[in-house]
Amino acid sequence: MTLPSTYADRNCSLARSLEIVGERWTLLIVRDAFFGVRRFGDFVTQLKIPRAVLTSRLKSLVQEGVLVRDDGATGGVEYRLTAKGEGLWPVVRALMHWGDTFYSPSGVKRAARHDQDGGLLDHEGRCGDCGLVIPVPEIRIEPGPGFDSTDPGHDPVSDAINTPRRLLEPITASRTR
Amino acid sequence: MTLPSTYADRNCSLARSLEIVGERWTLLIVRDAFFGVRRFGDFVTQLKIPRAVLTSRLKSLVQEGVLVRDDGATGGVEYRLTAKGEGLWPVVRALMHWGDTFYSPSGVKRAARHDQDGGLLDHEGRCGDCGLVIPVPEIRIEPGPGFDSTDPGHDPVSDAINTPRRLLEPITASRTR
DNA sequence: AGTAGCAGTTCAGTCAATGAACCGGGTAGG
DNA sequence: CCTACCCGGTTCATTGACTGAACTGCTACT
């Protein structure tokens, strides 16, 4: 899966995409990046992913141009989504919608709103108020009716993610800067 | 990944979805099912997936209600998408679109049309002619400009898949019934 | 110097994937 | 009735990937 063309089908863009984001953990890393996670350690605590696996996934995501790694202004290492990475939002949205539909009887686990006018976004990412498809940086995400708030967050990163916030806004919770 | 809740995050429908369709090969099996593949042996020849893995994937997809297994009218075993399985079409479409966008400079590898009026479907599945989102059984799929027809199909199943056809229509190519 | 936080590595144990050979039931032909 | 073939599925030895815990090395602060 890591190597190019592990799936034989050269004529299928689905297979091609899965070469990049089809491995275990990869899409969850991307989701966290949408939610503002940027630091190696924050991915580890949020996802409980083995550090070695995270290293390998971040490396290939950077190589594929889904993330950029830079030693950021804050002094530490940061991983951020590129435009190509942001292009995965419809994929993440579609999977979340399918999961909400078939595995969350009490309603969506997370709702998306248009940050500018507060309108609810439908499953296609279209704002109920202004009718437009909202670009990623203008989307605000918040807990929905299906969100389970018993068993509350155990770490500041999860807490930050579960608070209404705009996508891509960096998480600064644990860091007092 | 096979077990429930291998991904810790209970409050994320993305993680929940990936429990079901996030394993290696699973979405490719689903894609083939959309393209009309129904037989064990056809999945093997089309995907070149190890038979043991296919057995295991089909079993869990049936268990999750994405596929149904029945000993069909034709006499053989058949795997078909359920409504829940058809609900994965937006996921498959989103991943194909991302792959087309970033890995297929010469254009989409497969185009989708509204079978009724011949209108091209956009990346949201909306018909350019009638403006509606087209339900899966009314979608016709055909090779697009990015399709590589050198290195032609080596097996009748691939040939059938690469011929314009409606989704879900069973492949009967190799079988002379 | 001394400590703390963080990105990333190392390593041994475990579990899943791979590919090729094999099994057994059903059907068709002789 | 016997044989050959097709097909779904299993078995098995090998290889490779994932896991979790401990460790390294760098930087900043005291």
TrEMBL record, chains A, B:
The keyword Transcription applies. Residues 12-107 form the HTH hxlR-type domain. InterPro entries: HTH_HxlR, WH-like_DNA-bd_sf, WH_DNA-bd_sf. GO terms for molecular function: DNA binding. Keywords: DNA-binding, Transcription, Transcription regulation. Residues 143-163 are annotated as: Disordered. SUPFAM superfamilies: Winged helix' DNA-binding domain. It holds the Pfam family HxlR. The keyword DNA-binding applies. It comes from the Bacteria. This is ArsR family transcriptional regulator. It comes from Planotetraspora kaengkrachanensis.
